[in-house]
């Protein structure tokens, strides 16, 4: 039973959750290979989870992430250790810091899109992944020479591609088999990333710390007790940011272009709004454009990249009147919340204007999770997505190659458009 539920969940969490809601209501109890999970998509239940004291929860499912990200990764630690790491890392992604990235996002987008051949189909997910990878690599390490940057990008893509969902979810499949198994190949790439990271950290420590890049900021940051991050911890946090900071954003971008092409009226309204800002608008002006914000939000509502966020109960917890014991886990099902017909009229339709007319609460709309573990890169991701969408939309004529319906599929821990959204460059606009 638990194995079957885990398999169904792993394969298609969207269908899995919707079937459970139709059959059992909310919340739902799910026996999984990692223990019992009680999930809710109801705003009241979500409020209870996201507003609970952080010490109510431990980390559920960290075992799935540690091989990829490392044991000290912000995504894998819990309790006081998590809070202190988070406090150190949050400033790196805050307000003023974002200004520095706008020009970077725009120039990287143009560089990759300029390389497209007119008339030759490409996958939007791939184009977006190279853009977002380049962006996070340069934000983390500062400007690298093109060879070093592309070495990092290829290696990280390989690391993520080799992190198969099956081995992530089923521990038993993590067998090296004399070095020939997929798991052994994943470990080999992981070792290569670790070695490159160690060299990068050592070089940065030696060369002085004048830069404004994330690596420099994290080397300099101090915990409340005046200690600093060790090299091992820096490696885990940087790997986490590199992995969490691009795959998610590139999937949203691929979905965004899919929906915009399916809805030419929405696309036209968006292009008019961007053009009204004048030629070559500033990224900061773009980031304040309400309709662009609404398009990004509606894309993440319909296609949440992370289908749910789970927490292990360290103490008994009351969820919607059910008394739950310590040891099991609770989850906010983003999929259920984002398609809740009591919150969203016509929930399966792509209608960005719903975000113009109404402000949804953090318990109704949570593409970046919530509470004490909410995504630290949310502002970075939103700023990047808006800059990339506006640049591609206004400077390149990109079209879907077919009108087939694209569905969601698991990439590893996250979900993305199955097949990657095939598009073609039909022309370029004068800049
Ligand atoms: C559209 C893009 C993104 C989406 C949809 C997304 C979504 C999420 C979600 C759902 C979580 C879990 C939150 C929870 O448990 O409540 C999360 C955590 C996290 N994300 Fe993102 N993310 C995105 C982009 C980024 C970027 C750009 C970065 C870094 C540059 C980043 C770094 C992280 C980190 C470090 C955590 C762990 C936070 C913690 O446990 O305290 N993410 N993200």
β-strand amount: 5-15%
The CATH homologous superfamily is called Cytochrome P450
**Which structural class do the helices and strands define?**
alpha+beta
Number of DSSP strand runs: 12
Low-confidence stretches: none
Query: How many domains, in number, for the residues?
Result: 1
Fraction of helical residues: 40-55%
Indicate the mean pLDDT. 91
Ions, cofactors and other ligands present here are: protoporphyrin IX containing FE
- How many separate helices? 19
Strand order of the largest sheet: 1-2-8-5-3
Q: What's the CATH class, please? A: Mainly Alpha
Main β-sheet description = 5 strands, mixed
Gyration radius from CA atoms, angstroms: 21 Å
User: What is the CATH-assigned architecture?
Assistant: Orthogonal Bundle
CATH level-3 fold name: Cytochrome p450
Shape: globular
Terminal Cα span: 58 Å
């Amino acid at each position: 039973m638990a194995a079957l539920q885990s398999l169904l969940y792993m394969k298609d969490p969207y269908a899995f959750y919707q079937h459970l809601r139709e059959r059992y209501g909310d919340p739902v109890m799910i026996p999984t290979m990692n223990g019992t999970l009680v999930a809710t998509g109801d705003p009241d239940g979500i409020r209870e989870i996201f507003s609970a004291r952080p010490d109510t929860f431990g980390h559920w499912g960290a075992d799935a992430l540690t091989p990829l990200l490392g044991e000290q990764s912000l995504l894998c630690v819990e309790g006081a250790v998590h809070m202190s790491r988070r406090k150190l890392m949050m400033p790196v992604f805050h307000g003023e810091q974002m200004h520095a990235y706008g020009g970077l996002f725009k120039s990287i987008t143009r560089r990759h899109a300029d390389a497209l051949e007119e008339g030759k189909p490409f996958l939007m997910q791939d184009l977006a992944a190279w853009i977002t990878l380049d962006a996070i690599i340069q934000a983390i390490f500062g400007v690298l020479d093109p060879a070093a940057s592309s070495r990092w990008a290829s290696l990280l893509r390989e690391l993520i591609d080799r992190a198969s969902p099956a081995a992530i979810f089923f521990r038993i499949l993590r067998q090296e088999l004399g070095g020939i198994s997929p798991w052994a190949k994943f470990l080999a790439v992981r070792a290569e990333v670790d070695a490159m990271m160690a060299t990068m950290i050592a070089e940065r420590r030696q060369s002085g710390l004048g830069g404004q890049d994330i690596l420099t900021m994290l080397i300099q940051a101090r915990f409340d007790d005046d200690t600093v991050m060790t090299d091992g911890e820096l490696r885990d946090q940087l790997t986490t940011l590199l992995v969490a900071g691009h795959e998610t954003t590139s999937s949203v971008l691929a979905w965004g272009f899919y929906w915009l092409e399916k809805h030419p009226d929405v696309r036209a309204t968006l292009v008019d709004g961007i053009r009204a800002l004048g030629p070559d608008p500033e990224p900061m002006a773009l980031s304040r454009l309400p309709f662009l914000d609404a398009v990004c939000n509606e894309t993440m509502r319909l296609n949440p990249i992370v289908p749910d966020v789970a927490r292990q109960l360290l103490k008994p917890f009351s969820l919607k009147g059910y008394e739950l014991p310590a040891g099991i886990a609770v989850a906010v099902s983003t999929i259920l919340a984002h398609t809740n017909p009591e919150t969203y009229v016509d929930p399966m339709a792509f209608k960005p204007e719903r975000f113009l007319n109404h402000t949804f609460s953090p318990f109704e709309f949570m593409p970046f999770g919530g509470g004490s573990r909410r995504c630290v890169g949310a502002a970075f991701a939103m700023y990047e997505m808006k800059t990339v969408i506006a640049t591609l939309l206004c400077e390149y004529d990109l079209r879907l190659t077919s009108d087939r319906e694209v569905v969601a599929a698991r990439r590893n821990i996250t979900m993305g458009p199955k097949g990657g959204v095939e598009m073609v460059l039909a022309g370029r606009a004068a800049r």
